[in-house]
Amino acid sequence: MNATTVRYILDTMGEMFPDAHCELHHSNPFELVIAVLLSAQCTDETVNKVTANLFQKYRKPEDYLAVPIEELEQDIRRIGLFRSKAKHIQHLCQMLLERYNGEVPEEHEKLIELPGVGRKTANVVMSNAFDVPAIAVDTHVERVSKRLGLANWKDSVLEVEKKLMKRVPRDEWTLTHHRLIFFGRYHCKAQNPKCDVCPLLSICREGKKRMKPIQVRKDKD
Q1: Which residues cross the membrane (predicted)?
Q2: Each residue of 109-124: pLDDT tens digit?
Q3: Residue ending a domain, choose from 95, 129, 163
Q4: What is the C-alpha separation between 29 and 105, in angstroms, rounded?
Q5: How confident is the model at residue 218 (pLDDT cuts 50, 70, 90)?
Q6: Has residue 145 been placed in a domain?
C-alpha cells in the first residue's frame, strides 16, 4: 500500500471521528492500568459502569490488597473472567508496591512485566497516561487494519502493530489508534459493517466482497 492511500485512510477517519479518544474512564495511570486490565474480552461501557464504584472504594494499590480476594471478585463480578482478573489485580498491586513504590512505571518493558498487563495494555498506558506515541492493537484495530489492507489477513497482532507503526507517522500513532478503534466500534463493525455508506469502500477488501452480492441482486432486478 502506498503512502498516498495510507494518508487518505488516516484523513478520512479523522474527518469521521475527529474527537476519538480513550473511552475508559480514569483519572490517573494506576486507574487506567486497572481499567484496561478489566477491559479484556469486555466492553468499555461495562468496565466504566464497574469502575465508577470500584475507583471510589479502591484508590491505591494498598486498598486492593487490604480486602480478601473474594470481596474484590464480587466488586468486579459483572466483568468477564472476573476471578482471574481479581488475582491479576492483587498480584499487580503487590508488584507495584514491592518494586515501584506503588507507582505505575513509565517504561514499556517494566509495564509488560506486570501481571495481567500485555503489550496492548502497556501501549494504551504509555500513550494515554504518559503521552508516549504508541499503537495498541485490540480487536477493532486488527479487524479494520486487515479489512483496509494496512495489514495482511494472516498477520499476528504484533505484525499488525509493526506495520501500522511503519506506515503511520510517529506523531500520529496515538490518535490513529483511537480513530481505528472508533471506526471499528461504531462504523466498521465485526458483524454489520456500514459498507453501503463507507467512504473507504473502494479500498476495503471486506467491503467489496460484502457489497458484491447486493450489486448482483440489483443487476438482476
Answers
A1: none
A2: 999 999 989 899 999 9
A3: 129
A4: 9
A5: low
A6: yes
**Catalytic residues, which ones?**
120, 138
Mean pLDDT of 73-100: 95
Distance, CA of 60 to chain centre:
24
Query: Is residue 220 helix, strand or coil?
Result: helix
What residues have CB less than 8 Å from 10, skipping those under 6 apart? 168, 172, 176, 179
Is 22 annotated to bind a ligand? Reply is no
Rounded Cα gap, residues 149 and 161, in angstroms: 13
191-200 contacts, C-beta under 8 A, 24 or more apart: 193/147, 199/12, 199/16, 200/9, 200/12, 200/148
The overall average pLDDT reported for the chain is: 93
Domain limits at 52? Answer: 29-129
φ, ψ dihedrals at 143, nearest 5°: -60, -50
Please tell me whether 198 is known to bind a ligand: yes
Q: Is 93 annotated as a binding residue?
A: no
Overall residue count recorded for the chain in this entry: 221
